[in-house]
Amino acid sequence: MARRDRILRFTVAVLRVLLVLNIAFATAFLVATLASVPLHDMLADRIVGKYPAIDVDRVVTGIRALLLLGIAAAVPAHIIFSRLIAVIGTVLAGETFASPNARRVRQIGWALLAIQLLDVPLLLIIPSFAGMGVRADGSSISVGGWLSVLVAFVLARVFAEGASLREDLEGTV
């Protein structure tokens, strides 16, 4: 049990680092998006210097869209990291099937779904970089990602049933 606790505590530490990095990157993406407006000409000059035959406004718009997509992705990532930390906290406390865990795992499922749906605008943005050596023919849609959404919702139901059984058992003792 002690080994498992060490693994869980290590996982919590990793998730906390990921939470901080997520906020830092979202902030950096926001700053870069805002800075790209007054620095548009400088950015355009650099792009034209490297890719003279490119539609620079389309590329800059694509860059801004990718940055905004990164900011949008930070929200469900934050939900996933923070809810996992909370679930692990209850597991470490010996309360694995606590009622809130079902809700937390369901929220993780919705966050995973949001991340999967962010692939749609990504597929629309990638063609903005045509002519720069960026391949737009590949899909970023992941079967594994969609399966993880389903697994999260199934686990949320398992946690809800476990919490219900636990409450029934406590009521009979």
UniProtKB/TrEMBL annotation:
Signal peptide: none annotated. It comes from the Bacteria. InterPro entries: DUF2975. The chain crosses the membrane at residues 12-35, 65-98, 110-129, 141-160. The keyword Magnesium does not apply. Keywords: Membrane, Transmembrane, Transmembrane helix. This is DUF2975 domain-containing protein. It comes from Sphingomonas hengshuiensis.
